Amino acid sequence: MAKLPTVEAADAYHEARLHLEWQGYTYEQREAALYKAQDYLTFYELRDYSHEGAATVAKYDALIERAIIMLAPELAASNSIAATPLVLKESSSVKQGLLAESKEYARPTADRFPQVTALLKPILISSSLGGSGMMRIIKY
Q1: CA 55 to chain centre
Q2: pLDDT tens figures, 95-137
C-alpha cells in the first residue's frame, strides 16, 4: 500500500492550485488531515496490485498518494471521517438448488468525492450490486 504523503508534498500540490484554505491550517492540522484522508480511503475497496510489476505498483501507489492529498483539505476541519457515512447497508441472497447464499454489503448513496473515485478507477473494485458500475464501499 502507498505510503502517507508528506505535508510538504501536500503543500506543494495545493499551493500550485491556489487552495489557500489549506495553507491556513497549522502543520499539525495538515498532517492530521492527511491521516484522515488515508483513513477515508479504507472506505473504497481497492484491488490488490502488490503482485504486479514494480512500475505498476509505483504508478498505483502514486494514485493513492495523490488521492490522499486531494482529500486532505476536505477532511481537515472534520473531527471524524465517520461523521457523514454515505453508505446504505443492503443484503442479497442467491438460491442455487436447495442452498441459499446471503451476502451483506454496503453501497454508496452518493459519491462524495467523484474526482477521487475517477482517479482511483484503475484499482477500484466495481460492483454491479446497487447499480451499474457503482463503486462498492466496504466499511462505514
Answers
A1: 22
A2: 666 666 666 555 555 677 888 989 999 999 864 433 334 444 4
With cell 495545493, the residue in question is 14
3-state secondary structure at position 69: helix
User: Which residues, at least 6 apart from 124, have a Cβ–Cβ distance to it below 8 Å?
Assistant: 44, 45, 46, 47, 117, 135
Q: Find out whether 66 and 119 touch, Cβ atoms under 8 Å.
A: yes
Rounded to whole angstroms, what are the CA distances from 100 to 76, 92, 130, 132, 133? 45, 10, 20, 24, 25
Task: Tell me the sheet residues that pair with 135.
Answer: 126
Q: With cut-offs at 50, 70 and 90, classify the pLDDT of residue 33.
A: very high
Q: What is the dihedral of CA 67, 119, 12, 74, to 10 degrees?
A: -50
